[in-house]
Amino acid sequence: MIDLGDWKEPLAPLFADERYLKIREFLKYEYSHYTVYPDMYDLYNCFRYTPYANVKVVLLGQDPYHNEGQAHGLCFSVKAGVPKPPSLENMLKELKDDLGFEAPKSGDLSKWAREGVLLLNTALTVRAHQANSHAACGWSWFTDSVISLLSEQKEHLVFLLWGGNARRKKPLIDAGKHLILECAHPSPLSAYNGFFGCRHYSKTNAYLTANGIPPVNWDLNA
Known about the structure:
This protein is 36% helix and 11% strand. It has helices at 8-16, 18-33, 45-49, 86-99, 110-114, 139-153, 164-167, 200-210, and strands spanning 36-37, 57-61, 117-121, 126-127, 158-162, 179-183. Strands 3-2-5-6 form a four-stranded parallel sheet. A two-stranded antiparallel sheet has the order 1-4.
């Protein structure tokens, strides 16, 4: 098991659960018989890059990018040198419109992760070129449990729910303790239906600041 730092204790009950053991068996078969993304060593990067103690924003994605070289364990993010997918391009357009930050050359969002933004997909793996192919393997139970755990054990988090898949997680979050910001998905198919102009980046920082929490530096060029 890769060292997950201070996530080890909160995640221990999940890793010991029979449902997780079934996910592991499924993944052993998938990784040995098919091309699966991300690389198994990147599978838990969202936890490795954002320590449990540092989480202040939870950004939910659906499942990893399914083309070669894209997914590296952080939702919406791609490795440096990989062309930015359309949804990420739209996220960066809204970032410029909201806060004035220019889009970086790279689509690697690990800087956000290190700022305390948990970049969590609701399914952590996918078979190459087959979107949602691992959606039914048990990941939804695992990631729902992570969302519930964060809602229960922390206060004053911001949950960014973009698109129908993410918005369905709203019942897992205690709206009395946290800020929930929801809108359309940044995909080109839906971004003009409410994602553009949502100003979620600045709204996140306004809430964090109001609760005595350092804001996120969203500038990926900083």
